[in-house]
Amino acid sequence: MGDLVTLDSGITLAYDEVGTGNPVVLLHGFPHNRSLWAPQTSALIEHGRCIAPDLRGFGESGREGPYSMDQYARDVAGLLEKLGVEKAVVGGLSMGGYVAFALWRLRPDLVRALVLADTRPGADSPETRRKRLETMALAREGGAGAVANAQITGMVGATTRAQNPALVDGLHQMLASAPVEGIIGALQAMMDRPDSTDLLPTIDVPTLIIVGEEDALTPVKESRAMHAAIPGSRLEVIPGAGHCSNLEKPAAFNHVLGEFLSALNYA
User: CATH no. for residue 97?
Assistant: First the structure.
């Protein structure tokens, strides 16, 4: 059980907070919760104050709307205000990366550095929008378990599926525990999100891009394009990992992230 805070907007957010020093906020993807970051919050304690919230609609956070990337970003800003954080390293995986882009658009003053993991800047294609609508219908008809069954293969790479079935099972349980309201709200928020490609050249803070070599949902080529568009960014490709690279290869992910945070701390 983590901590709970009620924001000025009225929503209650659950979060874990570990360590001291420079704040690092870690934003989970879809349809995850903050436990996605357990391998990082425990390992990176020496590098800073790790804060991992459940986004609204997921985990132990409130489920009331509205849902949008801007709203998620405002929630993160509200959480930082409640915690007395003036600036933070903001990291997001997949949908968490979309929230990080929204936060940069709305409140760049809060962002000390960015970590963009297994994510993309572009808006949904017509095909992706169609799939999201199908997933909404699946959630309404079959619940989170049906969504988990449909999503789990894309969440991890072929290496993980072959070599670490226990991790796949644990991740499936996380997906299956997601509230249906949160699933549907997040799907709508992702469908409605703006294209952030034009935002990339405006990013003038240190930026680390991480992607699993076997990521089928946000392939390496997307991360290479982000790297080319964000001035001075660093790109790291994690071998043997898929879309949830932080879970699949935590030692490699933590090494790269730890190096990045150390360099910031000594800058």
Answer: 3.40.50.1820
Residue 146 within any structural domain of the chain: no
Domain enclosing residue 211, as ranges: 3-123+194-266
Report pLDDT digits (tens) over 208-265: 999 999 999 999 999 999 999 999 999 999 999 999 999 999 999 999 999 999 999 7
> CA 102 to CA 90: how far, in whole Å?
11
How many domains does one find in the chain?
A: 1
Cβ 76 vs Cβ 99: under 8 Å: yes
Ranges of the chain whose pLDDT falls below 50: none
Global pTM reads 0.98
Nearest to 57 by CA among 217, 247, 187, 246: 187
